Amino acid sequence: xxxxxxxxxxxxxxxxxxxxxxxxxxxxxxxxxxxxxxxxxxxxxxxxxxxxxxxxxxxxxxxxxxxxxxxxxxxxxxxxxxxxxxxxxxxxxxxxxxxxxxxxxxxxxxxxxxxxxxxxxxxxxxxxxxxxxxxxxxxxxxxxxxxxxxxxxxxxxxxxxxxxxxxxxxxxxxxxxxxxxxxxxxxxxxxxxxxxxxxxxxxxxxxxxxxxxxxxxxxxxxxxxxxxxxxxxxxxxxxxxxxxxxxxxxxxxxxxxxx
Length: 259
Description:
This protein is mostly helical. It has helices at residues 11-18, 27-55, 62-92, 103-141, 152-177, 179-183, 187-212, 225-232, 237-257. The protein has nine helices and no strands. It is elongated, with a radius of gyration of 22 Å. The model is unreliable at 1-17 (pLDDT under 50).
């Protein structure tokens, strides 16, 4: 059976196998990732509800080591395995013949990039809305005693690295599979990934400031300005979509002109 230069089966064969339209052949992967992340985040939130007050108020207690530091170690092991596996796969499986990519194949990859960006922003939303904002309330009730609080172990050491993993994956996918992004660095794509990444960098400064300046938690203090700037960079996602839509229109015109 013939294959395209990109190594994928012809559209008719793929459609017959997956019963999906050719341009969203990766939809099932997206839905699985979406469901998996949802299960992880809901599971972590339920875990917090069960053991946050019971064993998470004092890091010197043996129960804290049992319920929270073990979770911390599990998170580190998980991330240490997933980071090189996913980024390594995206790089090693890159398309070496982008100049020969067919219009339909390129258009399909733009839909897949949109899925990457969507799952990335979904992870950012969970990190910022359910866990990062909760951190302020947490510290007003249980003043931080170490950087390893019951909420920090989830938000700083899992949620932030997770969305960085997904944002970096979206960047790598675009750079290795789409001619528009492979030829030059996309400013909106880079800012959309780099800005939220800097939130994790701000965490170190934030913890240092709370240790040596004040231990209370207030929203509107200069110590937290870095978080706000990092979130603003997420607006660059709109620029990614504009770039992609312009190219997708060109590809659709080519497909319509085909016999």
